[in-house]
Amino acid sequence: MKKEWDLLLKLTPELSHIAEKRYEILANISFYQPIGRRALAELMELKERELRNEINVLKNEVEKTEQEVNTLKDDLHKIELRITRLKNKKSKNADRLKENYNFNPEKDIPEDRMNIKDYSALNKQINKLKTKIDKLGIVNQGAIKEHENLQEKVKNLKHQQQDLKQARKSINKVIKKIEKTMGDEFYRTFVKVKEEFEKIFIDLFSGGQAELKLTEPDNYLESGIEINAQPPGKQLKKLSLLSGGERALTAIALVFAFLKVNPSPVYILDEIDAPLDDANLVRFSQFIEKYSKLSQFIIITHRKHMMTKAHTIYGISMEESGVSKLISLKLNKENELKFKENYQEG
């Protein structure tokens, strides 16, 4: 019993040391166990990610391979279709050769056959030859006679053409001569009208100056005419820049310039005085009164002042509704004085 007790006492320190070691091991296990789990989880996750990447790479390769296979299938299908079309074309060409040319391409192909490079050009040449053959038609026995007749007809047509050319030259000469005569006559008339216009303008406006100008002096027949006028006390202006009354009186001066160059025994003026103001109307009436000694004037007017200058007045009266009556009044000196007095009072 004593030995056993001594042995127990001897083993107690060792047992205590073992217990301490055990406690230390258990503490280390408790400390390192979560770290190990996390490391294991991270290792598993990394492995899983690598496997997924490998799987995706394999999938992409599989898809790419499938696309290449589909492309090859499409190419193969196209090639098969092309082969079928070429076979059909070959069969049609063989039938056409047999039908049109009595040629069997399987038996009648010569050994020294021509190598065709441009089939399009060859087809065009064949079509041209076919067209020429079709145009020949049936052989005409009278073709030589028809050819002689056509040659005679061509000869006559050439002779007529030569006559027409000569006639054309003659007509062109006449036209040039007429144009020259017209141009000369126009210019002579223009100079006369210009001189008369300048004189009549001064008479109508009691002064001032005016001029007619050709816009193209070197081409009379296509030239325009520009009118410049300078009434008394104003600057020289184009016709479009004058007042309405001045433009009207200038136009009247131009009209009478034409009449002076090519006079007539009777003139009819339809309300030519309508746009004139009172001052210009007086000038115009005096001008008409002066030239009435040379020619007769029939004036249609509503202006009372012009009526006072007339020798005979014609008017339309409607005494009854819907019934018009022509009235004439011949003015002598006594009636003229009375008419002027009534006009001035009115």
What does this structure look like?
The protein is mainly alpha-helical and 346 residues long. Among the domains are: 165-263, P-loop containing nucleotide triphosphate hydrolases (Rossmann fold, 3-Layer(aba) Sandwich); 264-346, Rossmann fold (3-Layer(aba) Sandwich), CATH 3.40.50. The protein is built from 7 helices and 7 strands, in the order H-H-H-E-E-E-H-E-H-E-H-E-E-H. The strands form 3 sheets. It has a 3-stranded antiparallel beta sheet with strand order 1-2-3, covered by helices on one side. Strands 4-5 form a two-stranded parallel ribbon. Strand 6 (312-320) and strand 7 form a beta hairpin. The radius of gyration is 62 Å and the shape is elongated.
Strand order of the largest sheet: 1-2-3
Low-confidence parts: 336-346
How many helices? 7
Cα(first) to Cα(last) distance is 182 Å
CATH architecture of one domain: 3-Layer(aba) Sandwich
Order of helices and strands: HHHEEEHEHEHEEH
Overall mean pLDDT stands at 77
CATH classification class of one domain: Alpha Beta
Q: Quick one: how many beta strands?
A: 7
Shape summary? elongated
Q: In angstroms, what is the radius of gyration? A: 62 Å
How much helical structure, as a percent, in the residues? 55-70%
So, the CATH homologous superfamily of one domain?
P-loop containing nucleotide triphosphate hydrolases
Strand-pairing-aware structural class: mainly alpha
Largest sheet: 3 strands, antiparallel
CATH topology of one domain: Rossmann fold
Approximate strand percentage:
5-15%
